[in-house]
Amino acid sequence: MHLKALESLHMDDQHRVCVPACHRYIHSDDKTWWDDNVSAFPKGFHIPCNVLVTERIPPFPEGVRNTIIERYCPEELKASIKSSKPDEDCLIRPYLGRRRLDHGRKQRRFHAFSLRNYPLHLDQIEELQLDGALYARVMAETLARLYWIAHMDANDVEFVLAPRRHHQADIESAGARVMQSPILGDHSVWLLDFDCCRSMSQDEAGLQQAVAAFYRNDPFYPRPVRIDDRDQRLWKEFREQFLSSSAAILDPESPEAQLPGRWVALAEQRC
Questions:
Q1: Which of 30, 123, 146, 240 is the most buried (most CB within 10 A)?
Q2: Are 59 and 163 in contact (CB under 8 A)?
Q3: Are the CB atoms for 175 and 14 separated by under 8 Å?
Q4: 26-33: long-range contacts at Cβ-Cβ below 8 A with a sequence spacing of 24 or more?
């Protein structure tokens, strides 16, 4: 599924999302490879197992990490998070479909905080003056390509914000969109985790499957029919990009040309 996603998203130079390059698939019974590499795995890791060797997504640098910590980390945890080695692997999950209920005002007795896959909710995206509409358009185009080119339901895929590739001139990076931000610096939207994706038929059953996966996933995508006007505008951005990208992929004379509009209708009915 990872390779199918790569092919569908990188088939031309117009893609906007980054997908980690896939280097090698290691089977659990590859004794030679495991004998040579077992020492690189942490203690307690369940090995041998099937392993997909992919490109490492670059983490955000210290300056970005410190900004997130100062703004959102509980005061009593700031020092430990700043000195934490695991928290140097900072990727940000953009949650365009959820706002924090308490907007940081409600105090909790127990705190937890990690920069590894840090969930950045929509109200935080607005606070940091990040381009949520652009993220929404990238996600919409990505779904259109996964649905109508790769024929996969995008179940449980993950979007993260992370720095651009170090070698942006690489052929697989040439069309990826680089965003600028005073807070995050130059960064891109990355897509990963395809192990739960399944093939989808290009019919009503496939649409139902894709819509179910859309709502089952973490709240990366905007949601339709929200009370907040800003949320409604964000869904409109997503919907229009999804339909536009889909129209560019599908033959307008084919029966499949009706599927994108039907997917939108199903998504809006379910909300």
A1: 146
A2: yes
A3: yes
A4: 26/50, 26/51, 26/52, 26/53
- Cα separation of 271 and 263, whole Å? 13
- Which stretches of the chain are DSSP H helices? 2-9, 31-37, 62-72, 78-82, 122-127, 132-148, 204-216, 229-249, 259-270
DSSP codes of every residue in 113-151:
--STTEEEEHHHHHHTT--HHHHHHHHHHHHHHHHHTS-
Instruction: Say which residues have a Cβ less than 8 Å from residue 97's Cβ, sequence separation at least 6.
Output: 122, 219, 220, 221, 222, 223
**Given the DSSP bridges, would you call strands 187-192 and 158-163 parallel, antiparallel or unpaired?**
antiparallel
Cβ atoms within 10 Å of 164's Cβ, excluding its own: 18
Quick one: which of 96, 88, 80 has its CA closest to 58?
A: 88
- Tell me which DSSP letter residue 191 carries: E
Please list, in sequence order, all residues whose beta carbon lies within 8 angstroms of the beta carbon of residue 228, skipping any fewer than 6 positions away: 99
Number of H helices, E strands in the chain: 9, 6
- The arrangement of strands across the sheet holding 158-163 comes to 118-121, 92-95, 158-163, 187-192
Which 3 state secondary structure label does DSSP give 269? helix
pTM of the full structure: 0.90
Q: Indicate the SS3 state at residue 12.
A: coil
Alpha carbon distance 260, 258 (integer Å): 6
Tell me the pLDDT tens digit for each residue of 48-95: 899 888 899 999 999 999 999 999 999 999 999 999 999 999 999 999
